[in-house]
Amino acid sequence: MPGDPNLDNSRRQVTAAAFSFVNPIKTSNPLLLHVSKEMSEELGFSEQDIQSKEFLEVMTGNSIPENSKPFAMCYAGHQFGNWAGQLGDGRAINLGEIKNWALQLKGAGPTPYSRTADGLAVLRSSIREYLCSEAMHHLGVPTTRALSLSLTGDQVLRDVLYDGNPAYEKGAIVSRVAQSFLRFGNFELFAARNDLKNLKILTDYTILRHFSHLGKPCKEVYLKFFQEVSNKTLEMIIHWQRVGFVHGVMNTDNMSILGLTIDYGPYGWLEGFDFGWTPNTTDKQHKRYRYGNQPNIGLWNLYQLANALYPLIDETAPLEEILEEYKNTFAKKSLNMMRAKLGLVLAEETDINLIQSLEDNLQAIETDMTIFFRLLSSFNPKQAEKGIELIQDAFYSPEQLVGKVLTDWKHWFVSYAKRLERETTPNEEREQLMKTKNPKYVLRNYMAQLAIEKANKGDISLVEELYQVLKKPYEEQPEFEHWFTKRPEWARHKVGCSMLSCSS
Question: Which DSSP symbol is given to 179?
Answer without folding.
Answer: S
